[in-house]
Input
Amino acid sequence: MSELSPDVARKRDQLLDTIARLDRCAVAFSGGVDSTVVAKAAQLALGNRAIAVTGTSASLADGELDEAIALARQIGIRHEIVTTEEFADGGYVANAPDRCYHCKTELYTQLARLTERFSVAVVLNGANLDDRGDHRPGMVAAMEHRVRSPLLECGLSKAEVRQLAAHWGLPVWDKPASPCLSSRIAYGEEVTPERVRMIDQAEQYLRSLGLRELRVRYHKGDLARLEVPLTALPRLADDETRAALVERLRELGFKYVTLDLEGFRSGSLNQVLPLDSLRLLS
Output
């Protein structure tokens, strides 16, 4: 168990106290570092009066559900799985800049039905302090459904959340951010199960090459734009690796395969959005 700085230790105690006051709660649990820390805190604060709930659909990357199940078992928190139907929502499929709003609305609606069964009045998510400065339409859905964000309430940044995860021995403490597969599709291009499958399998292939931080972005015309760390660009451009990569992605359905010379950067598709389209949490 790693040591915490006095400031992070104080925030940890505040987090546990905040959740302990809720009596019963459900955690929207994706298996990422943020929601895993909230689930661990909920289990410590409330014991069997806390449950973790994972939504599953075609937009969930292969292996993520199994990892969430294993994490919930390690934490010792009750774990429920619900199937979400965001692909039945025309607003989600259209993939405008508010796509995440439709996705989270569906998730929180499903969680509300489940929490009624378990007499849970409060749903918690994993939003942290850093999420306030990004394009987060899903936070609008959270506010509409009265979902609370204890990490944000206690002033925990992403780096501090990772420190806390390491302190609690959670294996995801250094896991790269892994938003849903639909976030890889350029705005205005329809989100379909076929396209997210192509993206998922392409990213799995890149991981088989030893990469951890990466994105396969889908653009019009079945074009794949690969974002990897700058240090990995020469390797992927090597003749043998490049030829195998192009062959594999064409097998998956991509017609064009490109390397982004700016390298990996989270949220790069948001760069094309005009300022007045951004719905930010303030």
